[in-house]
């Protein structure tokens, strides 16, 4: 049993565990102390508090009535740990002057080498194309149109395999630091604050639009349906595989039970009992022909052969995809990575042929 308390964070009320509250309070106090010199009015920390409140509200809407330590730790990591602020400040303080000048124009963000992440905030499937668009600095809709067009060309298989490999091995841009790196912007306290402010505004717009659509479509039943759906555990690919295997075994057992209660079915084709042309007994004739002709062993073997075929296909797909994932994890330039992936793809199918 854990003690919970009620807090008001950015005009939102939450039930939070006492340990989680201590963690959150320590984090916010650290931010206030850090930004005290550059932000005496607390504007930055107020924006950060507001963003944390929005993330907590999102968790609450998805069925988490109490804010736990795990949720608080996840939100803090997503916002940026204190070490991120301290490290980036130490890097910039050696090169920057010790004075801060107030300007009316928006400061230009320092550009750095972009990193390839999956942009899950703008995804259709896994965020691969949106992340790649951010990496090469083009509009995502252009890349999506090109991808859809190329799906009708001979390189369809390569595109699908490449997309699956990226979806598995490329990390999603979850934290503020990762989203800045994805955009090619220097990770600094000011950049983190600006990114948080932008996302806070975007989040408010999305929530407003989302609720208006939900009210129209589901007649104000959004929160209940969303909570129910969220509470259902997400099934992984292994659970789907075991489900398919269970169906195959269940079918085999059903036919096996049919054999046990009527062993005459394995004596061969029993179409002689009824004429296949007799419409009154055609179903009985087909049943005898199927069960009696194949027998229990065939009924079990055929599903197992199908299962083995699926497993061998997945094994071959893994042999093809894993080296691509290793290449994607290398520090090489994206052009070199693509050339290496194309080379491996051609070598793989050359060996198969």
UniProtKB/TrEMBL annotation:
Q: Where in the cell is it found?
A: Cell membrane
Ubl conjugation listed as a keyword: no
Which ranges of the sequence are coiled-coil?
none
Q: Where is the Phage shock protein PspC N-terminal domain positioned along the sequence?
A: 114-172
Q: Which Pfam families match?
A: PspC
Transmembrane intervals: 124-142, 148-170, 240-262, 282-302, 309-328, 334-352
Q: How does it sit in the membrane?
A: Single-pass membrane protein
| Species classification | Bacteria, Pseudomonadati, Bacteroidota, Bacteroidia, Bacteroidales
Write out the biased-composition intervals (Low complexity): 93-104
Q: What is its main location?
A: membrane
Superkingdom of this entry's organism? Bacteria
Q: What are the annotated GO cellular component locations?
A: plasma membrane
Q: What is this protein called?
A: Phage shock protein C (PspC) family protein
Q: Where is this region: Disordered?
A: 87-108
Give UniProt keywords alphabetically: Cell membrane, Membrane, Transmembrane, Transmembrane helix
């Amino acid at each position: 049993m854990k003690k919970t308390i009620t807090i008001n964070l950015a005009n939102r009320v939450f039930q939070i565990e006492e340990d989680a509250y201590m963690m959150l309070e320590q984090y916010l106090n650290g931010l206030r102390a850090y930004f005290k010199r550059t932000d005496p009015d607390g504007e930055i920390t107020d924006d950060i508090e507001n963003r944390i409140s929005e993330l907590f509200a999102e968790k609450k809407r998805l069925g988490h009535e109490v804010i736990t330590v795990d949720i608080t730790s996840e939100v803090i990591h997503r916002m940026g740990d204190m070490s991120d602020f301290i490290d980036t400040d130490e890097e910039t303080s050696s090169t920057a002057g010790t004075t801060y000048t107030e300007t009316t124009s928006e400061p230009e963000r320092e550009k750095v080498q972009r990193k390839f992440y999956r942009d899950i905030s703008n995804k259709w499937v896994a965020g691969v194309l949106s992340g790649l668009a951010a990496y090469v600095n083009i509009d995502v809709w252009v890349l999506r149109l090109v991808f859809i067009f190329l799906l009708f060309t001979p390189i369809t298989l390569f595109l699908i395999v490449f997309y699956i490999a990226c979806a598995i091995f490329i990390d999603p841009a979850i934290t503020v630091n990762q989203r800045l790196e994805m955009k090619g912007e220097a990770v600094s306290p000011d950049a983190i604050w600006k990114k948080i402010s932008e996302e806070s505004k975007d989040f408010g717009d999305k929530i407003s639009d989302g609720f208006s659509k939900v009210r129209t479509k589901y007649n104000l039943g959004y929160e209940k349906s969303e909570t129910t759906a969220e509470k259902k555990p997400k099934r992984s690919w292994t659970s789907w595989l075991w489900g398919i295997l269970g169906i195959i075994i269940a079918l085999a057992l059903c036919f096996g039970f049919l054999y046990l209660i009527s062993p005459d079915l394995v004596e061969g084709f029993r179409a002689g009992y009824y004429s296949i042309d007799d419409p009154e007994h055609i179903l009985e004739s087909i049943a005898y022909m199927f069960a009696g002709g194949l027998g229990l062993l065939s009924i079990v073997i055929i599903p197992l052969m199908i299962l083995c075929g699926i497993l061998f296909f997945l094994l071959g797909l893994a042999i093809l995809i894993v080296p691509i994932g290793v290449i994607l994890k290398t520090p090489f330039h994206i052009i070199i990575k693509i050339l290496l992936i194309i080379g491996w793809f051609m070598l793989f199918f050359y060996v198969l042929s």
